[in-house]
Amino acid sequence: MKRLVVFGKNKKATATVYFVLRFLVIVTLVLQLIKGNYENVFMCVLTLILFLIPIIIDRKLNIKLPNTLEIIIFLFIFSAEILGEVQNFYGIFKYWDSILHTINGFLCAAIGFSMIDILNRSTKFHKMLTPVFVALVAFCFSMTVGVLWEFIEYGMDKTFNTDMQKDRIVTTVSSTLLNEEGKNQEEVIKDIEKTIVYGTLNGKKSAITIDGGYLDIGINDTMKDLIVNFIGAVVFSIIGLLYIKNRDEYRFAEEFMPAVKTEEEIEETKKELERLEKVLEDKKKRKNRK
Question: Exposed, middle or buried: residue 208 (CB in 10 Å: 0-12, 13-18, 19+)?
Fold first, then answer.
């Protein structure tokens, strides 16, 4: 019960998910440390830090995260970092990355929508925005986050030679560079069986054969990520539009939307933290007496 106080009232499910996932991350961290895989150890530490973000948002920014949204955030972080990176789900499951980017588009649209909706309902905001405009802003916010993330992936790949933009094998290439006469007219090579790449690998001159086609270096992955982000953004933007027009019928949308805490909720949070601090202090005193 003491731990659940950290999440406030009616947060039992959220707390359970949080502590189960945190335990799994710690176990993974220890196993990776034993194996000497320090890159994965770093990913585990990063995951534990990211797990604190919803709690910090709740405590420091006084923004209330619904149970459903908070649980999805924890599962999303775990799925992306531990399952995706450490356990290589990105390589094992073909659509793992697409699923996560779709969810990201959906959640970012929900967050963008909630920010505008909060302003719309505030007495301090004198201009009432139309439902269509609010949905459009939510969509644009989600797509902007998606584009910025692709910038990060591209920057990491270019700067540190990572492979965040996952390479793919393609069997067709269309390019004007293949035009022998130098004309601005594309030439198409179909049914590519293999390509040979000449270069330096691990300090040695090498010829690497790529069977099955041509190695695409990220553009397909980037565009796929943006397309599924677009789908997720559109889905919630439509839900948000319907929610504004009929809040009672589409109240389930609130499960994905952060909200500013009321004065009563802020005061309740302070009291909960004070009670927790008192419990911990009493426990420490009893321990010192022994």
Answer: exposed
